[in-house]
Amino acid sequence: MKIPLDENKLIYMQIAEVIEDAVISGELNEGDQVYSTNQFARLYGINPATAAKGINLLVEEGILYKKRGIGMFVAEGARNMIVGKRKTQFIEDYISKLIREAEKLNITKEELIDLIKTYERGDK
Amino acid sequence: MKYAVECRNISKNFGRTTALSDINIKLEKDKIYGLLGRNGAGKSTLLNIVTAQVFPSSGEVKIFGETPYENDRALRHLCIVKESGMFLKDVNVGDALDIASSFYDNWDNNLAERLLREFELDRRKTYKNLSLGMRSQLGIIVGLASRAPITIFDEPYIGLDAAGRQLFYDALIEDYMEKPRTIILSTHLIDEVSNLLEDVIILHKGTVKLEGNSEDIKNKAFYISGIKDSVESHVSGKKVLNKEEFGKTMAVAIFDSISEKERKAMEADDLIISSVPLQQLFIFLTGGKMIKRGDMNE
Amino acid sequence: MNRIKSHLKMHYINSKMSLIIFWSIMFAISVLGILIALYARSRGYNGTITISHMPAVVIFGAISGLVSYNETLPYMLNMGITRKNFILGYALYNTVLSLILSVIFTFLTLWESLLYNLLGFSNQQIGQIFTAFSIGEIFDRIWSCFIITLAVTAFFTLVGSIYYKKGMMYLFGIGALIMLVMFIPGVAAGVFRVLEYIILYLTGDKGYLTMTLFSLAFFLACYSIIYPLARTSQVKR
Predict the structure, then answer these.
(1) What residue numbers bound the domain in which B227 lies?
(2) I need a surface site. Which of B24, B207, B266, C83 has the fewest CB within 10 A?
(3) How many CB atoms neighbour CB A17 within 10 A?
């Protein structure tokens, strides 16, 4: 069985995200070896070159590094790097949308902050 | 010998019909290419020319820098799997594989045996007694086991059900990882294989309509939908492939890049941006349209 | 070298079934012939009652040559053979096939003659079959059948190669042309004289070397046309 992919996003970006998610969640720790491009190709039913593109992206960003002849490993400080990156994205993706939507519904920023403070997740 | 396959100004006429018109493509080594096109686009003709089975009206082919016509050395690099014409009617499966093994230098018998078992083909059956699906399976076995440096699959799965096709894709990727080689996959079933393709070439009416890395292409194919005026202002200057209007809303498909800035601006205007899957992009580029119920009455 | 072996092997595998069927029929005809001869004799018939199997053999060679070319050329081109190698292999196949057919034919005829003799038929009655049962005669029969089959097979391979490249209409066109040429005074007479010479040989046993050379020349002449035809032949979808 192949793990399904979101057809709206670029495949290699999704591979990079999967690795990043694993680092954030603690599944992958700094110094751990990451799946090889072939393993990703097999898991997701994709071309190994595409998997490589995703991995190389993270290597360029310094989140992964390559040990010649062995494989790809999580770099030191990777977690912080990713969290930092995600925080910036968080502001773009979620906060700006939140504010925009709130404006449409005439919710002021103060009301918004109150709502956030008092909000309880349904599953807690 | 930088390229595995080169087509220089290939044209082909059949009487007064032009099948191919000035095709120029360069295929690099060890990549999986998708050759996409509608019926009659010229895919099979092009592939037959590349393998020296059909002669071009003009232009030339180079296989690792050499012309394949009457060139044993160049021909040995090639293996082509076709819908028909691959096997003799009165020869059985086992013998057919035996003969094939002597024509492909890199033939891997273990792989052939394994695939025979996975496909559950009876080696004593003669080709003419095989069902359409089984014939495809046999062709696929030859294509994969040949391990030819340039392996071509020209719509190899007629009659093969979804499970059989999946077996093929898995075996293809697995063996490609084991022994990288140049693979050309010519197909209609674009959505099924789009994740496997590194580069794509779209052929339409005998010319190359589009070629490039499949992810790069995906990064330029977007649906943008929202309020009509908004949409129109944001996509002005972009290459539009298709427009659909319903009431005050409009959805367009564009083939152009969207910068981060443009994306944010669009989102700020409540436009929804999503990707166009390769299959649909292909349909747009090759003139196909979705027929809506309304059209019928117009 | 390896490729030539597999090339011939392919032809063998492809022809196997038709060869088996053909010789089974020939054997059955042979047996039938003997039974008919016995029956005829019991009815008082005293004349010649056998036929030569050679025409059937020659026809088989011819049809094999024609059909096999059309089947195996696109198949082999698809596998990546050069047209030159294909023709070389095919010429070899023609030769080997003709030889094998001739050998089997000779031994079938030998078996028949022995049986007829055993059953008390005289040489006169069994017509143009073995008379002396010597090694020399066996070789004669094999060789004469071989060179005739070879020439005819090559000719029909040529017909097959024209058919492959140009199609049925073209062949009919050539046939019509030949008929037209035959109407020219003198041509028909000349052709018949040549045919006469060949048939004379079939019943006599002179001019071995000449016939062999003639056949070889004819074979090469056919192939000198087949080769350029193959070189310019394409694979249809």
Answers:
(1) 219-297
(2) B24
(3) 16
Q: What is the pLDDT of residue B183?
A: 97
B82 CB neighbours in chain C (<8 A) are: 78
Neighbors of chain B with 3 or more C-beta pairs under 8 Å: A, C
Question: Number of C-alpha atoms within 13 angstroms, CB side, residue A82?
Answer: 25
Is C237 a member of any domain?
no
Task: Indicate yes or no: CB of A41 within 8 angstroms of CB of B31.
Answer: no
Domain total in chain C: 1
Q: Is the pLDDT of residue C205 over 60?
A: no
Mean pLDDT, range C161-179, rounded to an integer = 91
Cβ-Cβ contacts under 8 Å, C72 against chain B: 88
Judge if B179 and B64 occupy the same domain.
Answer: yes
- Of C204 and C7, the one with more pLDDT: C7
Which amino acid is it at A115?
L
Chain B residues with CB under 8 Å of C87 CB are none
Measured CA to CA in angstroms, residue B280 lies from A11, B203, B251, C167, C194 at distances of 17, 15, 14, 42, 70
Enumerate the H helices of B51-161 as residue ranges. Answer: 72-75, 93-101, 109-119, 132-146
Q: Does A57 touch chain B (CB under 8 A)?
A: no
Q: According to the per-residue pLDDT averaged within each range, which of A14-18, A94-98, B286-290, C2-6 is highest?
A: A14-18
pLDDT of B298 over the 50 cut: no
* Token duo for residue C60: 């088989």
Say whether residue B258 is in contact with chain A using an 8 A CB cutoff.
Answer: no
Does the pTM of the predicted model rise above 0.90? no
Q: Is the pLDDT of residue B163 over 50?
A: yes
At residue B151, does pLDDT exceed 70? yes
DSSP letter at B5? Answer: E
* Cβ within 8 Å, pair B195-A45: yes
Domain assignment present for residue C203? The answer is yes
Alpha carbon B140 to its chain's center = 15
Dmax of chain C from CA atoms? 63
Question: How far does Cα A116 stand from its chain's mean position?
Answer: 24
Instruction: Give the closest-approach CA distance of A99 to chain B in angstroms.
Output: 11
Choosing among 3.40.190.10, 1.10.10.10, 3.90.76.10, 3.50.30.40, the CATH entry for A11-78 is 1.10.10.10
Percent of chain B with pLDDT over 90: 75
Torsion of CA A57, A60, A64, A68, to 10 degrees: 100
Are B222 and B276 in contact by the 8 Å Cβ rule? The answer is yes
- Cβ atoms of B95 and C16 closer than 8 Å: no
Chain C residue at shortest CA distance from B43: C237
Distances (CA, A) of B272 to B181, B218, B232, B252, B258: 40, 17, 13, 11, 13
Can you tell me the distance from the alpha carbon of C71 to that of C164, in angstroms, rounded to the nearest whole number?
10
Q: Is the pLDDT of residue A43 over 80?
A: yes
- R_g over Cα of chain B: 22
Chain B residue closest in CA terms to A96: B268
